[in-house]
Amino acid sequence: MADIATATRTVPFLTRLTRHRVPVHALEAAGAEAAGRVVRLNMGPFRPYLVTHPDHVEQVLTGNQANYLREGMFWDPLAPLLGEGILSDGENWAESRRILQPLFTARHVNAMAENMARIMDELIDTTIVPGQPFDVAKGMSAIVHPVIVRLFFGAKISVEDINRLVPAYDVAVTAKALRVVLPFVPEQVPMPGDRAFRRAIKAIDEVVYPRIAEARGQEQEGDDVVSRLVRARTQDGGADGDRLIRDDLVAMHGASTETSTTALSWVWPVLQAHPEIAAKVYDEVDRVVGDDPVGIDHLPRMPYLKMFVSELMRLYPSGWILPRTAIATDVIGGVTVEAGSTVILSPYLTHRLAEFWDRPTTFDPERFAPGGDARRHRYAYWPFAAGPHVCLGQHLFAMEAPLLIAGILRRYRPHVHLDQPPVPRLAASLRPPRGLTMTLEARR
Ligand code: HEM
Question: Residue 401 CA: which ligand 1 atom is closest?
Fold first, then answer.
């Protein structure tokens, strides 16, 4: 009799990828065929397990979390960017998490929020030219990125350095996109994007290391992330200590800007595709904010905008893939997962499971009306992951998203230049299609 592991269903991925040439369609087809069961994805020489059912997600992210490490062929190509801190695993990760977690609690983020609101308002003012088409992702990045840089580095970074960091990060997180969908190609085999990646890392390090050296040389009273990291790591001196601070800063910076920028890029095509939902969002912003700059006291009074953002993160979760390596053999949903195997979780697929979501592909913010959570499996919705690695930035994003959306809508109405709803692009995050443009028209 075949044992459970050999009886595990294998679903095609690589052939679908080459046939359709639209990776997200290959992913959706694999998810539909799995329908919540644990399956193996046939990626040619490599067959990771795909885990989407909420019970199974809970086992990997929480119940037996210590068995599933963030390492392996998906993570290795990004190691020079992410380093050995908060986005690694094991002891180094635990130490970084202990230092960083207190900086991003809801209370602490609330304290930063007024500052964020002010910087955001200035940036919306200075970067948007009404009536002029712009690239949606670049436009969002031009606002999100400097906001994050200011929160992380305080006044310790010049505008020139911000302008060097922004494109370097963009290259660093996108250059390895091909390796994310073809993770079995060895690092020694050159692929498009490798050289650009190395150049981007160099540019990032040339900005970040001098900021650390400067911060170490001063009395650090500041509340920005560099000052706090330097204070927390006074006993980790020399090049090794600098490296630890660099790794956390760079990993946090990458994790916060790429995810927020792509999430906020989806706002505009989604509003355009759903005029009746857009009308409710516009109405709420008009009633609550009016002509004033958006402040944090407006946020609790815009519940529909909050529901809209939650639904946006259901259908377009920036962190669409979470790869793990199993340390010991485990059984998930009756399937034996051997030690050393790669396990792939995807909120994109869990959030579209028909067993847990009524009309799963319909965009409907009402799902997140008060009381909705209680009717849902706790692990049916996890755009920010869960368990010990749960996103450190979720409170920050909960503040950043309505500030940006309402900040734009109080002055402008969007028009996206696209006839049909866009197909997501599987990159380091779930990006809208390349070249998506929009125009913001002044309201009055
Ligand atoms: C739309 C916005 C965001 C989304 C969808 C998102 C999603 C996620 C997900 C899915 C993870 C788990 C990764 C894994 O375990 O493999 C994660 C971790 C993380 N996120 Fe976010 N994130 C967002 C914004 C932010 C922001 C603004 C920050 C900045 C503070 C941030 C910092 C982090 C960090 C440091 C981790 C690693 C936590 C750990 O492993 O202990 N994220 N995020």
Answer: 1
**Amino acid 44: pLDDT:** 80
- Atom 19 (ligand 1): residue with closest C-alpha? 391
Please report, for the chain, the start and end positions of each structural domain, with discontinuous segments joined by +.
4-442
Multiple choice CATH, 4-442, 3.40.50.2300, 1.10.630.10, 1.10.238.10, 1.20.120.450: 1.10.630.10
Of 302, 336, 334, which Cα lies nearest the Cα of 405?
Answer: 302
Ligand 1, CB within 6 Å, residue ranges? 70, 86-87, 97, 104, 252, 255-256, 259-260, 263, 317-319, 322, 383-385, 389, 391-393, 396-397
pLDDT at 443 over 60: yes
Query: Cα-flanking dihedrals φ and ψ of residue 294, to 5°?
Result: -70, 130
Per-residue buried b or exposed e for 49-72, using 16+ beta carbons within 10 Å of the residue's own CB: bbbbbbebbbbbbbebbebbbbbb
Q: Residue 441 has what pLDDT?
A: 96
Q: What is the pLDDT of residue 2?
A: 38
Distance 176 CA to ligand 1 centre (A): 19
d(CA 232, CA 112): 19
Handedness of CA 175, 178, 181, 184 (dihedral sign): negative
Residue with tokens 């920050």, as numbered in its chain: 396
CA-252 nearest atom, ligand 1: 35
426 burial level (CB within 10 Å; 0-12, 13-18, 19+): buried
If you measure from the C-alpha of residue 256 to the centroid of ligand 1, how many angstroms do you get, rounded to a whole number? 7
Distance in angstroms (rounded) separating the CA atoms of residues 28 and 40: 14
Whole-number Å distance between alpha carbons of 393 and 101: 9
DSSP single-letter state for residue 45: T
Distances (CA, A) of 193 to 18, 171, 179, 198: 20, 9, 9, 9
pLDDT at res. 260: 94
Q: Enumerate the H helices of 42-105 as residue ranges.
A: 54-58, 79-82, 90-100
Cα 291 to ligand 1 centroid, rounded to whole Å? 33
Q: Which residue's alpha carbon is at the smallest distance from atom 17 of ligand 1? A: 391
Distance 384 CA to ligand 1 centre (A): 6
**Residue 71 has what pLDDT?**
86
Proportion of the chain above pLDDT 70, given as a percent: 95
User: Ligand 1, residues 51, 391, 392: which to mutate, most atoms within 8 A of Cβ?
Assistant: 391
Q: Ligand 1 mean position to 62 CA, how many Å?
A: 16
Question: In this predicted model, what pLDDT tens digit does every residue of 203-229 receive, in sequence order?
Answer: 999 999 988 888 887 765 677 788 888
- Among 12-16, 74-78, 330-334, 399-403, where is mean pLDDT lowest? 74-78
